[in-house]
Amino acid sequence: MRPTLVHLTAADVVTRPWKNGRGTTDELLLVPPDGDFGALDFEWRVARAGVDASGPFSQFAGFERVLVVVSGAGLRMEHGAAAPPTRVLRLHPYRFAGEWPTSAELLDGPVRDVNVLLRRDAVRGEVSTARRLPCERALHGSEAFVHALDGDLELRVGDAPTVRLAPGESLFVHGLETPTTCALGAEPGSDACALLVDVVRPGVRR
């Protein structure tokens, strides 16, 4: 049985205020779609935002967070006594606990980033970037998300039809029943790159 593919465009993006009120974020995906972000009643979420000034991050107790800087020089992340300071550079996913006290210092000017939230009692997830295309990635979970960061993408999940994504568009895949290959391609000479989220639900037999 083929998985379900949902092509997400700018019309599907929801702009929400940050939990700490210091800015806004563009929500690309919320699972389940009828979840309540304000009440933290959801399983996982992907959103993008601009960070124009150094300062504190919102806390999300019970969630794992993965941050990917997608433009700009990067951030210096600090978590008090919970973890040592870390420099987070462009396209290098950085995972940390949502309940850690977190602040970020701009390394050299504003950045844009993508944030993934994963509720620990519901899902596990791996976040990666693909910068050298064409390439293939193995999807081990039952759900996945692919976001076109730069350039036009072509992707094929298993034997499903090829999907083309413009920059800023995404593909949500659910109903994966076995480990599946995701083939990513772009025009020759393109600087296209993608962000991928592979989500596993513990206890789901594969």
Produce a short descriptive summary:
The protein has 206 residues and is an all-beta fold. It contains no helices and 19 strands.
Radius of gyration: 17 Å
Contiguous low-pLDDT stretches (5 residues minimum) are none
CATH architecture of the largest domain: Sandwich
Arrangement of strands in the largest sheet: 2-3-4-11-6-9
Count of helical regions: 0
CATH homolog superfamily of the largest domain: Jelly Rolls
Q: How much beta, percentage-wise?
A: over 45%
End-to-end C-alpha gap: 13 Å
Layout: helices, strands, pairs:
Blueprint: E1 4-8, E2 14-17, E3 24-31, E4 44-51, E5 55-56, E6 63-71, E7 75-78, E8 86-88, E9 94-97, E10 103-106, E11 111-119, E12 124-130, E13 135-139, E14 143-150, E15 153-157, E16 163-165, E17 170-174, E18 180-185, E19 193-200
Antiparallel strand pairs: 1-17, 2-3, 3-4, 4-11, 5-10, 6-9, 6-11, 7-8, 7-10, 12-19, 13-18, 14-17, 14-19, 15-16, 15-18
